[in-house]
Specification:
alpha+beta
Length: 215
Amino acid sequence: MTDLRPQTGPLWTLTVVPYQHPEARRLTQALYREQLALYGFADDPADTPDTDFTAPEGTFILASAGDDPALGCGGWRTAGPRTGEIKRMYVTPAARGRGLGRLILQVLQEDAARRGMTEMILETGARNTAALGLYARSGYISARPYGKDRDPGINRAMRRGLPAGGLTGARPRYLGGLPYAGLPLRTGGPPARYRAGRRKHHGGRPAAANGQLAG
């Protein structure tokens, strides 16, 4: 069996929280401010109903290093029959370039697949090259705009399919030294912990890094 145990990188704590959680609000508002600075306008995260990210219609997660304040967040919500939408992906400047965005995205996709989603869609900004690169490396391709009154010169819509049974299948993997074959994330008791960074692989390729993630 291929050993995918990580060799370096921080041990991340991923926790499912309500969208109105104070740390979720803090990070989504930080995302909002960055979008305003970059484009001059943005959708206010506070306008999104909390129920959009409530299971089984969706999930919202926070990521932190141990017991420290959250450094990243992201969610998915149901957008249509068997279609989920990635939203509010964000990693703080201090935590960028460490693989956290990719980990959040992977976990959200796996959760959506377990709940019956077969396609994921998302929007990000045309100037957000780091996010566009991450999504492209994660299997997303350009899609027709689906948001109301979107400017294709500013907004980029993307999509990808999800394989039946989730992304990890039955092949065991190791993240943070723990056997990992998908979710569920823990919503009570000790939160799930995963490690992102360089993994020993048949070529020792590093996990992809990320920058600002907008959605």
